[in-house]
UniProtKB/TrEMBL annotation:
GO terms for biological process: regulation of DNA-templated transcription. Residues 2-44 form the CopG-like ribbon-helix-helix domain. It comes from Rippkaea orientalis (strain PCC 8801 / RF-1). InterPro entries: Arc_rbn_hlx_hlx, RHH_5, Ribbon_hlx_hlx. This is CopG-like ribbon-helix-helix domain-containing protein.
Length: 58
């Protein structure tokens, strides 16, 4: 199931994201979701995010 997140970006960041999304022919929200997903996967693989919410050590 997907969840929604609302965030505020600095104008400069949004404009760069918009140009990037346009270049790829995709919506800004889709590109942002992809980038967040990749960042979370990387952080998990590097051990920066606990695997279990109730037990941060696992």
């Amino acid at each position: 199931m997907s969840k929604r997140v609302y965030l505020t970006l600095p104008d400069k960041v949004y404009e760069a994201l918009e140009r990037w999304a346009d270049e790829q022919g995709r919506p800004v929200a889709n590109l942002a979701a992809y980038l967040v997903e990749r960042a979370v996967e990387k952080a998990e693989s590097e051990g920066k995010i606990p695997l279990n919410k109730n037990n941060p050590k696992t």
